Amino acid sequence: MSGFGLKIVLFLLAQAAALGLVWNQLELEHTEQLLVENLKQYLLELRQRHQMIKNLHCRYHKKGSAFSRLAPLKLEIFSHDPYVVIYHDVLYDAEMQGLIDSTRRRMSRSMVQYEIRQIEISEQRTSKEAPFTEKNDPQLLKRIYDRLKDMTGCDMLRSEHLSILLYDQGGHHDPHVDYHDLYWHPQEYEYHPFGDRQASVVFYLNDVEDGGETVFPKLQLVIPPTKGSALMWHNLRPWGEGDPRTQHASCPVLSGYKQVAIQWILQGTRDLVTPKDALSKRLRSLHSHMGHAPQQ
């Protein structure tokens, strides 16, 4: 067995143990075919385990532009707290192909941030990526940003670049959070002038043959990649603190490949929470949950 295959097995076994799954002891010296079968069995049991978790409800999202009111977005809600939803059929085939074609030859290995301003290549994240900007296709980028505004109510002018990611067979990203934790490290606002990552949006650009699910272990959510859909969640609590329940992972691609486009929406795109007013915003939120608001 290759060292790469062994790493995938160990990763999946760790996830299975964290989820409380019962496994027979694996003989790691067995054939590659046994490896593949065990990986498929892991995902099968993972899916069955979370089959009981029903989506709360589906509805049409009619807020936003005149276009979205005429052709409302199909919204499926997984969780209200933290907010996790998926929008179906938000990208056209030509748009997805345009994102893929314009970045295909510019892909480089994705990086991992261990500490603030400490970024490096790691086996915890084995994807490749490239930014998609106005230089690539300004009309396409505008259409996507207009759709993001319809979905989120946020302006993308001061957001991070849209990133196109490729996960080849075996590609994965270990459990992690997207926020920088600026609430507890306010001095780092100097390096993030538009604030922390308020929300994350993942566009699925192709149908994956097998694997590649997005998993939220603490929420017991497993979301399969569906071409043309966009998964969105809020990373921060109302007062600006990172929400650890949004920890998520990208399961290994067992067959085929997975391509996604990721947009991180910053606090500054709607309502920048500075260190000065973070505490007062938290107090207002706590008071509202108690049924009354503090005096101004």
Structural summary, described in words:
There is one protein chain. With 296 residues, the chain is an alpha+beta fold. Helices cover 27% and strands 27% of the residues. It has six helices and 17 strands. It has helices at residues 3-18, 32-49, 66-70, 93-103, 138-152, 275-290, and strands at 57-61, 73-80, 83-88, 108-109, 112-115, 118-120, 128-132, 162-167, 173-176, 197-204, 210-211, 214-216, 221-223, 230-234, 248-250, 253-255, 258-266. Strands 1-2-3-14-10-17-8-7-4 form a nine-stranded antiparallel sheet, with helices on one face. α1 (3-18) packs parallel to α2 (32-49). The protein is globular, with a radius of gyration of 20 Å. It starts with a helix and ends in a 6-residue tail after the last helix. Keywords: Dioxygenase, Iron, Metal-binding, Oxidoreductase, Signal, Vitamin C.
